Amino acid sequence: MKIASQQARSFGADGMVQGPASGKFMLITPDRICYAGLLGRPLTREFGALTLYVSLGSPLSLKIRDGAWQSGEMFVVQADTPHQVATVDRRIGVYMIEPESVDLAQLPPELGFLATEGGAQLHHPAIREAFLALAGGDMHINAVRTRLDEFILGARMPVRQLECRVAAVVNRIKRNPSDSVNAEDYAQQVDLSFSRFLHLFKEEVGTTFRRFRAWKRARNFMCYVNANRNLTDIALETGYPDSSHFSHTVRRYWGLTPKDIMAGSRTLAVIHDASLVSTAH
Q: Name one Pfam family in it (predicted).
């Protein structure tokens, strides 16, 4: 199912940013999210992805857990790390990398900063220039969507090789985050005991099955942020049992309620693979 919206159509057939949405976009692929726009005023957030924050104007302020606020132009935050981020002019670039897709232990030297723990402050002018080119509408989106790492980071990321049974489960969840199949069913499908499946999943992916799927569902919500849809319908379609659970989970990961996210995304151009938007069953 593909969401049709006026904002999403602000990208022309050639992939060039057009119209009023120029400068505010979110590109979503199965393994990356690339965003340039306004930050909003999020509370503590806890992404399941490795996240690179880039200032597009005034310096950023970042706080990891209960630590002190830091100021700088660029920060990297590891997955599953509670943090807060703020900036005076609210202009920000964000690059999110799904951990199961990359081997951080095999990063080339020029990308070693991505493996830094905590909220490491960075200085990489080329990364900021790449974001500014996208935000300014000077780059064709379709020209970079299949090579985001090279365009944003300047190098390819080493691919993580998961154990084949875990990889099958991971790929199914990524294709259909709203799927209601539980861990016990997945274990049976890949011919593993329940306890062995959970242990192997965490060992391979680096996080628990429950946390992994919760993040993928919350991530999938971003495909709907400028859709003219009822929040209750979106909650059910993205796999949540009710609106309360939906709102709580989205706020936990994104630091904002679904209502606030959608209110701030009316002029946001969202580009995503249609396969990311699925119907619960």
A: HTH_18
